[in-house]
Design goal:
Layout: H1 3-10, E1 22-23, H2 35-44, E2 51-61, E3 66-76, E4 80-84, E5 90-94, E6 99-103, E7 108-112, H3 115-121, H4 127-135, E8 147-152, E9 155-160, E10 168-173, E11 180-187, E12 192-203, E13 206-218, E14 221-234, E15 249-250
Parallel strand pairs: 7-15
Antiparallel strand pairs: 1-12, 2-3, 2-14, 3-4, 4-5, 5-6, 6-7, 8-9, 9-10, 10-11, 11-12, 12-13, 13-14
Protein name: Deoxyuridine 5'-triphosphate nucleotidohydrolase
Pfam families: DUF4292
Keywords: Signal
Length: about 250
């Protein structure tokens, strides 16, 4: 049952088949492309929608134990991310300003900012980065940095011309969709790494992750979060019911 608290820290954060969707195109033939065109194609492939809903099967493995559950998932683009475990035993609600979740089993709740995610997974993330991570977009703004690119195996590799002082960044891009195949952040001095890998599906004419595999490594903790997206639908009218029950203890 600890999965409810664990899912909250990623909220989760915040995927293998989706019965209402068909798989994306088979592997594309990879051809040389300029870095500018690669960044442009990725940015232009960002999903345009108002709302998204579906179910996410979550499996968590920290090396000592494995746990899993299925979550209801809702998103209003740029405004809110909402998840709920069966029977409402756990709920989480993210907005650009805050993270909030509660756990009925332990009668406790959390309310705070996105510094919580940084403490849990070792990487600084804001709402738009969490949203991008869930949708297969880069968690850094590619237009604001200078990159170099080449071909690595069957994918495009994108790296900053000058790595950040605090962390190293590596991005692999799928040539069939120009979505992120993998994005990796390393803080070697702190012994931290954060990797996210993707597999994609088509929902109607939109390309959306089907599976997201998150690996977070800290000096005293390694964890894997495996997310499977199912029954995803765009642009339905949604509500985001969320109220912390009375009498719950605040998690510090």
């Amino acid at each position: 049952m600890r999965i409810y608290k664990i899912t909250g820290l990623f909220v989760l954060l915040v995927f293998s088949a989706c019965s209402s969707s068909r798989k994306v195109i088979s592997e594309a033939e990879i051809k040389p492309i300029t870095t500018k065109a690669l960044v442009r194609n990725h940015n232009e492939g960002a999903l345009n929608f108002k709302t998204l809903r579906g179910r996410i099967k979550v499996e968590y493995d920290n090396g000592a134990s494995k746990q899993g559950t299925s979550l209801s998932f809702r998103m209003e683009k740029d405004k809110a991310i909402w998840i709920s475990a069966p029977l409402g035993m756990f709920k989480a609600y993210l907005t650009p300003e805050r993270i909030s979740f509660y756990n009925k089993l332990e009668k406790e709740y959390f309310e705070g900012d996105f510094a919580y995610l940084e403490r849990m997974i070792g990487v600084e993330l804001e709402f738009d980065q969490v949203q991008n991570l869930l949708l297969g977009q880069s968690i850094v703004e590619l237009d604001r940095r200078r990159f170099t690119s080449d071909i690595l195996g069957k994918q495009y590799r994108l790296e900053p011309k000058k790595q950040d002082f605090l962390f190293d960044l590596l991005i692999l891009i799928d040539p069939a969709t120009f979505k992120i195949a993998s994005q990796q952040v390393y803080r070697s001095r702190a012994g931290q790494s954060f990797e996210v890998g993707y597999r994609y599906q088509k929902v109607g004419e939109r390309v959306l992750p089907e599976k997201v595999l998150v690996k977070a490594s800290l000096p005293d903790n390694n964890s894997i979060i495996d997310l499977d997206y199912r029954q995803m639908e765009f642009d339905r009218k949604l509500s985001f019911p969320y109220r912390i029950p009375k009498g719950y203890k605040l998690i510090q």
